[in-house]
Amino acid sequence: MPLRALRSLPALLLVLVLTGCGTAGLIRRGDALMVANRPDQALEYYQRALRRDAELANDPDFPAKLRRAQSLVHFNAAHAMARRSEWDDAVRLFEQSAAADTTFAEARTALAWAKAQGASAWHTRGLGLADQGRLDQATAALRHALTFVPDHPASRAALASVGRGTPGSRSPAEPLFTQANALATKKHWGQAAQALDAAVAADPNHLPSRTARAQARGQMSAAQQQYAQGDRLLGQKRLDQAQTRLRAALAIWPTYPEATNALARATTLRKQAEDRYAAARTMADKQRWDDAAAQAKAALDIFPYHPQARALLEAVAQQAAATHVEAGRNHLARRELAEAEASFLQALHYVPGLSAANQGLSEADYARGLDAEKQGRPGNALVWYLLAADHFPAPVYNDRATAARNAVFARARFGIAVQVHDAYGRTTPATESLAAAIAGRVSRSAPDAVFLTPIGKGGSRTDYLAATRLLQATADTRAIRSESRIHPYTVRRRVANPERPKLQRLLWAAERDFRDAQHEYSRRCRHCRGKGRVACSRCEGSGKIQCPTCEGKGKRPCPMCKGTGKIGNKKCLACRATGFRPCKTCKGTGKVECPKCDGRGTRKCSHCKGTGRAGSISHSELRRFERRVLDLRQRLRLEPDTVLADFPAEWPYTIHTYRTSGFAEATLQIIETAGNTVVHTDRLRKSQDHDDVTVDHPNPELGLPADPLVLPSEDSVRRAVLDDLANGAASTLLSAILNARITALRNRSEQFRRQGREADSIEAMVELARVLQNVSTEESDQIITQLKTRIRTHN
Questions:
Q1: Ramachandran assignment for 478, one of left (phi > 0), alpha (psi -120 to 50 degrees), beta (any other)
Q2: Which residues pair with 603 in a beta bridge?
Q3: What whole-number distance in Å separates Cα of residue 643 and Cα of residue 457?
Q4: What secondary structure, in 3-state letters, does 631-682 show?
Q5: What ranges do the domains of the chain cover?
Q6: Is 401 in contact with 362 (CB distance < 8 Å)?
Q7: pTM for this one?
Q8: Whole-angstrom Cα distance, residue 139 to residue 651?
Q9: Which residues, listed in sequence order, are joined to residue 670 by a DSSP beta bridge?
Q10: Cβ neighbours, 10 Å, residue 24
């Protein structure tokens, strides 16, 4: 607020504006907060007002407001505790609310309600503790409920049930409780729990029934836990451990039906396992090793943790495996390869990884590979050699596999011839260059199963002919568009400084505020008229007051002669027989310095504190106004009259865009020479565009440099397009030929398989795996893996 406006306000309002609201304002603020139902904040304002003015305690209205605010604060806090079901705190706070304001009827009503709710809550908690078997804690909770409502009937009935032998404590639950005790003695926990449930239903406040029910349920729960563990072990076929757990469950609860049934089932399975084990021992004694192994395995299927059955199975399996290996050797000596393989596999069934059985299998597979090689089927031989090496690695197997792989490779390879003509069937330098580029790309990218053959030369097998016809190969340069544009730039020139008028206006306002502050600062105090001191009211400006010791007389009775002037019959020498001595306080003058003004006759003015001024502006504030003026004057002196300013400008120019384009088009036809069949046709198109721009009307001084035209030559673009065409043709050629070859081999294998010629079908698939070896190694290995299983299944 400006100082001029402050001076126009009345004195009292000016004090309120400058110092803030006083005690009355705090009380009004508290009243407003009470109306807004915010008693906690209202209480803070009331307490602040009381601290500022202690006389408010004697006011007839203020204490009632303070008590009501305190009561409402406790009342709201109590409701918050009640919402959280913390009834002890809620009752305490409701009591404080009712005590703070005895006229607050709602607090008394809420207190009675909270006590009833607290009694019910502690009664419920006591019954819950009894349900957990914690009788002492339950009775303590019920006694606590009586502290809320001393005559709470449910809590008293529950406490009376604990002393059920006393007269008048008979409960309808007593007969059922007695019956349940008899059942519990016999460990009939299920029937006892049912009887106790009925007892609690008949009298929910009968604590002994609730406690006994908790005990019965605890025993049932312990038995159920043992049964659950036993049933889980039974599911895992751990029969001995399952029987132990189930017997423990029945020891706790002998009539537990589920545990009884589970124990019977575990006992039956254990007996079956023992019977199979006994049968296996009998078969082993008769050296019927296969039958003994079957019986021992059946015993372990029933009871996998039977140690004797497992040891017997291991011993019998060794004997059975040795027997089958010996039989396989005999079959192998007689060249009965299928029977030998079956014997060796049976031996491996008993003892996986048995070296003798694996060696026998490898010898049988090697013999089959030799037979296939004699029949002119190197693919079948390769699979058998690989199987032999899988069973028992040996250098001879690897050597034979390498030879068979080379034979398959020699048969799987196929040749490609590349032929290029122009649109009229002629050979030109462009077609010769394209043919050389395609051949180079093919030779670098083709797998090792593919080789190039020259056109018109004998001695090489040509399986496929790639006939390419170059239809078009052109390149030209042309302007494609022109654009007129504007280049923005900046021009700088001097203009009047826009900051000086702003600073001048600020300076005028600061000078005006400084003058107002000076006027306010220099205003005289009307009580002391600017002197800072006023006449002392006690000495009335004289600086002296009557001596209190001699009451202004300047002398006092002589203490030696008591004012008589004589001591006996002699004159008093102390007072020279006058009877008086000078006053020591005022030294005989009868006047002393005024203690209120220290003898000055004036004292500091209490209104202006001795400054002589009545203004509201302090010296530091006045200096701040002055510094503001001096600072603005300095800034105005340093601010220049003119400054440099930027102004936008535009420079027109034109951009011309040129493009060198190359285009090539060709047709591709792939022919299988054996049947003169077209397996693939395609049309290839390749193009390249190279753009550049040049600037018309440049101006480097403004940041718009000249941009010369830089484009590749038409011959280089034409050669680049032909190279792209060669790459595309080589990629398409290889992909199409490989797909055709793969499809042909798959069809041949499937045709042989339908005809029942399994060996020829496998031969075709081995060739296919060799063709895919450098194209898709994973698929090639997968085919060989499948053939290993397939060749053994069909032999």
A1: beta
A2: 534
A3: 90
A4: HHHHHHHHCCCEEEEEEEEEEEEEEEEEEEEEEEEEEEEEEECCCCEEEEEE
A5: 1-59, 73-159, 175-255, 353-412+755-793, 414-487+648-736, 501-523+615-639
A6: no
A7: 0.50
A8: 101
A9: 466, 680
A10: 11
Q: What's the number of CA atoms in the CB half-sphere (13 Å) around residue 35?
A: 6
Half-sphere exposure (Cβ direction) of 707: Cα atoms closer than 13 Å: 14
Query: pLDDT tens, 219-270?
Result: 889 988 999 999 999 899 898 899 999 999 888 888 888 999 999 999 999 9
Q: Which CATH number fits domain 73-159: 1.25.40, 2.60.40, 1.10.3470, 2.60.120?
A: 1.25.40
Please give the single-letter amino acid code of residue 413: R
3-state secondary structure of 206: coil
CA–CA dist 606, 532 (Å, integer)? 9
Residue 468 three-state SS = strand
Query: By three-state DSSP, how is residue 432 classified?
Result: helix
Spatial distance between the Cα atoms of 554 and 209, rounded to a whole number of angstroms: 104
Burial (0-12, 13-18, 19+ Cβ within 10 Å), 376: exposed
Candidates 792, 283, 333, 366; CA nearest to 325 is 333
Query: What one-letter code names the amino acid at 590?
Result: G
Taking the domain 414-487+648-736, which CATH number applies? 3.30.160
Question: And the tokens for 362?
Answer: 């490898």
Q: Which has the closest alpha carbon to 138: 204, 194, 221?
A: 204
Kindly state the tokens that stand for 48: 């602040």
HSE-up of 539 (CA within 13 Å, CB side)? 23
Q: How far is CA 755 from the centre of its chain?
A: 64
Closest CA to 577 of 587, 585, 589, 569: 569
Which residue's entry shows tokens 């009788």?
135
User: Distance (Å, rounded) from C-alpha 78 to C-alpha 92?
Assistant: 8
Q: Quick one: which of 550, 526, 485 has its CA closest to 693?
A: 485
Q: What is the pLDDT of residues 81-130, one digit of tens each?
A: 888 888 888 888 888 888 887 888 888 888 888 888 888 888 888 888 88
List all residues 6 or more positions away from 442 whose beta carbon is below 8 Å from its beta carbon. Answer: 416, 418, 450, 452, 730, 733, 734
* H helix or E strand, kind and range, residue 570: strand 570-571
Check for a shared fold between 73-159 and 175-255: yes
Q: Which of 385, 533, 466 is nearest to 668 (CA)?
A: 466
Cα separation, 111 vs 149, in Å, equals 11
Chain-centre distance of CA 156, in angstroms? 54
Helices (H) and strands (E) in the chain, counts: 26, 13
Q: Which residue has the higher pLDDT, 584 or 658?
A: 658
CATH entry 1.25.40 includes domain 175-255: yes
Tokens of 426: 């002629």
